[in-house]
Write a structure and sequence with these properties.
- Strands 1-2 form a two-stranded antiparallel ribbon.
- By secondary structure, the protein is an alpha+beta fold.
- Helix 6 runs antiparallel to helix 7.
Length: about 200
């Protein structure tokens, strides 16, 4: 597990969640234990080699915090402040496997159907339209969205200011972001084009 931290040249703060998942079976409390010291050492190495700017790490069991650390700065260079427990980081695409795990749990329990249109769960997607203004007959399905085939705008094709705001303005609630994304025109009919 630690090789992920030491070998990945383009390491992002987001990858720390993988470490949290793989080391979560350690039951250690109190002073810094060897496994936690290994995590701290690996992160410090990434900070020193400038592959990582800052990180927050927390191990817990239920509501109890077993160990936490705030390391590095919030920005590259001298302009950043020290990372603290209140620092917010953009987790970006690492949210996708977390969301997928949650969705698949809902599918397994029978509370979600991958082939249902997202509009069944989020009303904001009931009136989706294409770039030309024509209404789409059926909103993208959960499966199409998970496979990047829902027709939602693509970061690779360039985003307008509003689209950037909807995915990067952390003062927006999840509901506000979802509603804003739903109001943006689809770049293709759901299921017809891959767009990341």
């Amino acid at each position: 597990e630690m090789s992920i931290l030491s070998q990945n040249r383009t390491l992002h703060v987001c990858l720390l969640s993988i470490v949290l998942l793989t080391l979560s079976h350690f039951r250690m409390e109190g002073a810094e234990k060897p496994a936690y010291a290994q995590v701290r050492k690996a992160i410090q190495g990434q900070l020193e080699s400038r592959k990582l700017v800052g990180a927050q790490v927390l191990f817990g069991k239920g509501p109890k915090v077993l160990w936490s650390a705030n390391l590095g700065k919030t920005k590259v260079g001298d302009k950043g402040t020290q990372v603290d427990p209140e620092t917010l980081f953009c987790i970006g695409s690492v949210s996708k496997p977390v969301a997928t795990a949650a969705i698949m749990g809902l599918v397994e329990s029978g509370d979600m159907d991958l082939n249902r249109p997202v509009s069944y769960y989020l009303e904001a997607f009931e009136q989706v339209r294409l770039k030309d203004g024509s209404r789409v007959a059926v909103a993208p399905t959960i499966l199409q969205l998970m496979a990047h085939r829902g027709g939602i705008y693509s970061q690779r094709d360039g985003l307008n200011q509003e689209q950037v705001r909807l995915i990067r303005d952390f003062s927006l609630s999840l509901e506000e972001s979802a509603a804003g994304i739903a109001a943006q025109p689809l770049i293709s009919l759901p299921g017809t084009k891959y767009a990341y």
